[in-house]
Design a protein that fits this description.
Layout: H1 25-41, H2 62-84, H3 91-113, H4 120-138, H5 145-155, H6 159-165, H7 173-181, H8 185-191, H9 195-210, H10 215-229, H11 233-255, H12 261-273, H13 279-292
The chain binds ligand LTSJ6FE6 and adenine.
Residues 39-40, 48-49, 55, 122, 277, 279, 282-283 line the site of adenine.
Length: 306
């Protein structure tokens, strides 16, 4: 897209939403728009699409991603609304109601991108998160990182067993990779309440913000932390387990040093050579951004109506 340049100056302080009791549909779509826009604009991201590189992708660039973002963002208000109206429904019932909305959102993405998959995983993860925001607010439970993640985990309770372990005929990449390697991908991450984000990315993020580091640096460090430990099925589908290990070890090595953009460009080059793109970690970076806008909170027991 003409005139797009690396975002050198990110907002110094992330945009903070209203108090949870006032969070509305517009707030949610603004937050998701900002999360997706910051993620794709962050530059340089090894193997991924950004302002200056298409990463390991022949079929998409930042223009396609921005078209995808514009097409899918309105749907997150519907995910939020689904949560708001779910106050008496069981967690499993809520997931069943979310899926068709998610599939319709995927179709809106494919229509806007002429069939290119930019955000399938992001629609799933962020859709669950927005639904959790709606349900917690409607139930007047304080919205914190902990309560959001526990609610997402409650929505997805048993999902890996139902859709991966007990699946006699795998159809998708993720379903096949579970059969081959036991990797639960996006489903497992959601069922564990985004534990990779909570254990590896959020602590790094919060330390960086406390130290008043630039948001771009905070996001890149958090992305490296995700790449270092996330069991990203994109990497396995593109480069097998050796591809996943290459990226994890490379990111772990960078985390042990004072990395610079040059180190990231070099890793970008080596990942492109190997056709490796950590799309799952890119999605979790957007999740990390949204969670960072809320207080961490104590461990809140989600009272389910199940
Ligand atoms: C629940 C589904 C989304 C599961 O889909 P699937 O069965 O395919 O399972 P996964 O492989 O586990 O995940 C699909 C996408 O999720 C991202 N992902 C991968 N690993 C992880 C992880 N460990 N943690 C979190 N997220 C993960 C990843 O998505 C991103 O990468 C895609 C772009 O990369 P690319 O390599 O280009 O991908 P392709 O186009 O497929 O490859 P090429 O053809 O280019 O080579 C993009 O999707 C990013 O988002 C995985 O790809 C699904 O079954 C489902 O239910 N969908 C409906 C949505 C829904 O229900 N939403 C409502 C809320 S419930
Ligand atoms: N920036 C990005 N590049 C490639 N795949 C992605 N999936 C989510 N964000 C992505």
């Amino acid at each position: 897209m003409a005139g797009l340049h690396p975002i050198e100056v990110f907002p110094e302080r992330p945009w903070s939403p209203l108090q949870s009791s006032q969070l509305n549909q517009d707030d949610v779509t603004k937050i998701i728009h900002q999360a997706l826009w910051l993620e794709v604009s962050l530059t340089p991201k090894p193997g991924l699409v950004d302002c200056l590189s298409n990463g390991a992708h022949r079929d998409m660039d930042i223009a396609v991603f921005l078209a995808s973002i514009e097409a899918i963002v309105p749907w997150f208000g519907l995910f939020f609304q689904c949560g708001q109206h779910s106050i008496l429904a069981s967690n499993e019932r809520v997931l069943a109601e979310l899926r068709p909305i998610g599939k319709a959102c995927e179709q809106a993405m494919f229509q806007a991108t002429r069939g290119i998959n930019c955000h399938k995983g992001g629609i799933f993860a962020l859709g669950l998160l927005c639904c959790a925001l709606g349900r917690l607010g409607a139930r007047q439970i304080e919205i914190t990182q902990q309560s959001i993640c526990r609610q997402v985990s409650a929505f997805c309770h048993g999902l890996v067993q139902r859709e991966l372990q007990a699946n006699p005929s795998p159809q998708t990449v993720g379903e096949h990779l579970y059969q081959c390697y036991g990797l639960s991908g996006a489903r497992g991450e959601a069922e564990r309440g985004f534990d990779t984000v909570r254990r590896f990315a959020l602590p790094v993020w919060q330390t960086g913000i406390k130290q008043h580091r630039p948001l771009k640096e905070v996001m890149l460090h958090s992305l490296l932390s995700l790449m270092a430990y996330n069991q990203d099925t994109n990497l396995v589908s593109r480069g097998g387990m050796s591809g996943l290990r290459f990226v994890q070890h490379s990111a772990q090595r960078l985390l042990r040093m004072s990395w610079t953009d040059q180190h990231l460009w070099e890793l970008d080059r080596r990942m492109i050579e190997r056709n490796l793109s950590p799309g799952g970690s890119a999605d979790l970076l957007a999740i990390c951004y949204v969670l960072s806008l809320f207080p961490s909170g104590c461990d809140v027991e989600i009272k389910s109506v199940d």
